[in-house]
Protein 1
Amino acid sequence: MPSVHLTHRPDGVSVLTFDQPDSRANILTRTVWDELHAAVKSLAHRPGVRGLVVCSGKPDIFIAGADLKFFAGVESPNDAKVRELIEFGLGTLDRLENLPFPTVAVINGSAVGGGLEVALACDFRLCGPNPRAELGLPETKIGLIPGWGGTQRLIRLCDPTTAARMLVTGESLSAEAAIAAKLVDAPIVTGDLIEFAAAWVVEQNPEPHRRAKREALPLLDRELLKEAILALGPPESEAVREVASVMIRGGEQPLVDALPIETAAFLRVAGSDESNRRIAEFFAARKR
């Protein structure tokens, strides 16, 4: 059974649902990336689509993130298999980001790591009323950094202080905090989440949001970002040093040039001694 389901409503809104079979969570395995790529590619050529809603079939999880079992098997930095997976995911999200109609992610649970990176590639984000909703990029906690554009899209969408804190500490935000930080566009308080999102997305103009993500950060935001990073104190790990550098250097460039900076840094930390140790500790803690 597939993990990515694409349906088309009579009102012209398509709905892309992540629902990994025989799993409590949606995980971005290579197979799931392949399915997402195929779905997005088909949407780009489908006539009459007015908008896209991206959602989850799981009750408390949007997407839980990357397949850590894959990264646990990486023996050293700059692994060719890691590069291929990262670049494939980036290409897929670029297609999603450039669809010829507005897109919205409906988050009614946990959207962390790669899951939030998928949501960041959408034009808009809505949060449902689930108290378990959280948005985060916790990669530094396992010796990695976001690798599917998270370091660059987050700093362009979110206020600089919040973006720096999320990326350096791995701290997640509640739905309420994400709305305050402008990471989420609006809450869905009552009613059917998909019905609300479908009616909402077709009324939106995605171009200002896409333009803001494509361009380099404004000078003031770059300075605020640097101040926020410094205020968090000296980096305690290689991953934190890398993510801080990537935020600053990438923010000075348009997105197309910033993403390769992120990729190069990700390849340096994936398979490092720190990352392998922390991922092993993560799996050991889950067994206890």
Note: The chain has a mean pLDDT of 96.
Protein 2
Amino acid sequence: MFKIKLVFGIMFSLIITIASAQQENINKYLSIAAENNAGLKSIFNEYMAALEVAPQAKALPDPQLAFGYFISPVETREGPMQFKISASQFFPWFGTLKHKEHAANETAKSKYERFEESKAKLFNEVKGIYFNLYFNQKAIDITLENIDIIKTFQRLVTVKIESGNASIIDEYRIQMEINELENQLALLKDKKFALEAMFLNLLNSENMIEIVLPDNLWQTDFPLTRQAALDSIAMYNHQLLALDYQQASLAYKKKVAELSAKPNIKIGIDYTAVGKGDNNLSGKDAFLFPTIGITIPLYKNKYKARIQEAIHLEAAKSYEKQDKQNLMANLFEEGWKDYQDANRRIRLFEMQHDLALKSIKVLETDYTTGKESFEEVLRMERKVLKYHLEKEKAIADKQAAISYLNYLMGKSSNQRI
């Protein structure tokens, strides 16, 4: 008993190791795409630009410096005034700069979530084409194998025709079957080139990259329940998180709009140079004094409009999030349906393929002994080919569905397959 458990344990570990090794290839392609994809680079630079807004938002307005020269000096008791220098600084109402900085930071966070969303979408596209490439290659291999099997039948048919136990029609039928399979094979090869071009364009690498496909695609299951996945989407979907940060930014902008109705404070200093006069032989600085002032928010309608604008934008963003949540739920249901359907198709076509293989062996024997027509043999051979292809398509579709569900849950990491 212990030996049996040990053997099963070793086999399970080996399967996990092989699956992990297979996934290393696609992880490598995801890393290349993340580093080189032009669209992703564009969005990342938008995020980096957004990070530079906060230091600007929290900074004070530039100080003002004014210089005045008296073309006709104004005489004072101390002497003629020659020139005047004024320096002043405006200070927004208390809290205004802090709220502007917070608004800019929240906007930057929403840009980052947009970047993460784009990365997750890119990874899902890379995986989708990778799985299509896998299926297309399996279809090529299966079709070639089927052509070889049909040609084996052709030799059998030729022997029967020569012995007078079969009609030349069987030869024509089998040649038509081979012609159709060869045409299908040519189409699959053309499709392979198109898929490879699409895949490499997503990676956007300057170096030539060999696309390594597994002999058999891994068959991992989706690890979460339906409700757990929906909860994960509500918490971690990047589009929803971006809307949360946009709402937070608008909340701070509303506070800035409210504070804009408060007066700004101006603090300054004036310096006036006085020249030598009749009563002041040496001359001296007659005027040096500080100034203070405020702006008067007189036009109240303007400030009320700013506040209402922020309120309406905040409400709009809230409704946009509700709409996006409904859309995400619908997309999840579609992806969940595809995942469940792929699981069912894998089980179905495994059984159908096994039954078709058993049937073809019986039909071959019956045809050899003259009990069955060759048309039935060809019909069953088509079913063997169909079920084999459908099973591989279901395996690829299952992994594509898992990738799509992970994308909806915000999993952009290339370690999360």
Note: The domain at 25-59+92-262+297-408 is CATH 1.20.1600.10 (Outer membrane efflux proteins (OEP)).
Protein 3
Amino acid sequence: MTTKARAKPVKKSPVKRLQGKPAPQAAIAPKPAEPKSSIHFNPVLCIVNAPEQKLWSLSLEERLRKQFAIAGLAQAVSEAEAIAHNGPVILVRGDAVIDQPLIPVLLKRPNFLLLGNDAENQMPIAASVRGSDVSSAIEVLRGTKPFAAAKLLARAPSQLDMEFWKSLRKRETPYAIVVTAENRSIVEWRMFMGTYKGATDIVTKHLWPVPAFYATRFLAPLGVTPNMVTTVAALMTVLAFWFFLNGQFLPGLFAAWAMTFLDTVDGKLARTTLTSSKWGDYFDHGIDLIHPPFWYVAWGYGLLATETQWSNGLFWSVMAAILGGYILQRAIEGIAIKWLGLEIHIWRSIDTYFRQITARRNPNLILLTLFTAIAKPDWGLLAVASWTVICLGLHVLQLLQAFAAKRRAGPLTSWMTKP
């Protein structure tokens, strides 16, 4: 019997077997870890020639470091380290002061040279450069090399088109100034006034700046914090309420005016010494928002406690006008911010001027003080109620005009943003 040889199975090509599917790739061995690059992409700060002089309790170098830290740049290096740095470097003269809105400009604009405000003698203040250009830029800031030879985009603050500050509701050119012994007082005043809002009441805008300046300059080197000042202001708020409630209007007005003055000082102290905090902001603005209605109610009950002949009907009508008007005006301001995209007080110039006398705390205190001075505190509260109703009507008119303008021409813009 013949036995047939058994045929060996033919191996199929792996290509045919995997036809229609991608062939598996050979395993790739992981690459060895590459050495870290010496190139740095994060900017660093370098203060050039920092003198030993202070403004508002801070040395100029400390102030600059804090300002850049607020903007997100906390790493500071020496001049030698800046020259060796391969990434972006922000160079600032150590004898200069720079307004906070200019800090982001330096962080965002490469190959940029910031000049001072003085148009006649434009001095280089700060520069944003790469590591290879640091040495040349340092010479420019020291004045040993003309800034035209640095091949940087040189601009003064007035040339940056940033006069409108939405956060402070005002139109103002930021400052960049070299501090000297001769201009020190002028620089302090400029820095102080730079902390004021543009749309505010007549007392804050015209009466308090000078005394608040000297109070702030006195408190800053003593280590007094803004929250300490706000705490004293809160005590004055309660004291005024107590005096009003008991019909002691003159001492109550003294405490109330003291509170409004301290309310100015705490904010200016926080901004000039760069010690603002979220808690301080809530503390300060919370008191501002809540206390006025309590003062008016206390004043009304104080009138009832005296010999003033007020009926219950008149009392509640006055309270309804003042409290209702106060709440509705605040609501109108909130509606404008939410649905119109800007504060109603900075839409037109007339709105900003009207903000100086609108029925808010300080203008109302003027009315109460004037009528109390002629022994008519009841007339004072009636005047506040009348003025509140009038201002409410004007605010409603403002809001309707604003919505009509938005519907007709699109989103609203503040008059402060226009040339």
Note: The chain has 15 helices and eleven strands.
